[in-house]
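for the recovery benchmark. tokens below, seq after
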């Protein structure tokens, strides 16, 4: 858990941390391929935001973990079924990200870089058992590129009901139709332009 300025002030199990009123650490990542298609996951029914399409990768920062370590672990778990896979590369800067792309890393892996740390984001989500949840998050936001085909991914079926590439125009229509999770809608509006700038 974090205070309003982003300093760690304690650790509790996820449910207790979210109910504490203090900020919880989380990561969000959006990934695009060379064709300009956005990779989205569909949340399983019965989960928070169940049945809705969501960002490429999302998760909670564990005790003792930083945002960067968390996004690599979560991307490995959600996309490849292995938090320690070598198929997720995190660049420490935009120039390093560009170098990795120039070396062809996007053909072999998901290449990410952090673009933003949003403090005190009030998130509203559909509860897994009905109702709504309101949680305050400090969110590490990551953008990335991959040229891996859909069949190269092995998402965790316990977490995800689907994983697909969508054109930006289709994501816009999904937003207007209410098919996106609320936090994904915000992320798309805030970071969609920057994400699409990663396409050659």
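predicted aa per position
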């Amino acid at each position: 858990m974090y205070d309003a300025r982003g300093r760690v002030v304690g650790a509790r199990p996820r449910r207790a941390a979210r109910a504490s009123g203090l900020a919880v650490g989380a990561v969000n990542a959006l990934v695009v391929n060379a064709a300009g298609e956005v990779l989205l996951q569909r949340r399983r029914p019965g989960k928070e935001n169940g049945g809705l399409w969501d960002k490429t990768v999302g998760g909670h920062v564990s005790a003792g973990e930083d945002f960067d370590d968390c996004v690599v672990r979560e991307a490995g778990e959600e996309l490849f079924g292995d938090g320690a896979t070598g198929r997720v590369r995190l660049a420490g800067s935009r120039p390093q990200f560009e170098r990795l792309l120039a070396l062809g890393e996007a053909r072999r892996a998901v290449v990410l870089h952090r673009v933003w740390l949003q403090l005190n984001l009030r998130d509203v989500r559909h509860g897994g058992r009905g109702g709504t949840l309101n949680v305050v998050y400090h969110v590490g936001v990551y953008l990335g590129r991959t040229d891996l085909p859909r069949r190269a991914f092995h998402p965790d079926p316990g977490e995800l009901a689907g994983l697909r590439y969508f054109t930006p125009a289709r994501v816009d229509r999904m937003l207007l139709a209410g098919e996106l999770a609320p936090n994904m809608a915000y992320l798309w509006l805030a970071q969609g332009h920057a994400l699409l700038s990663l396409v050659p």
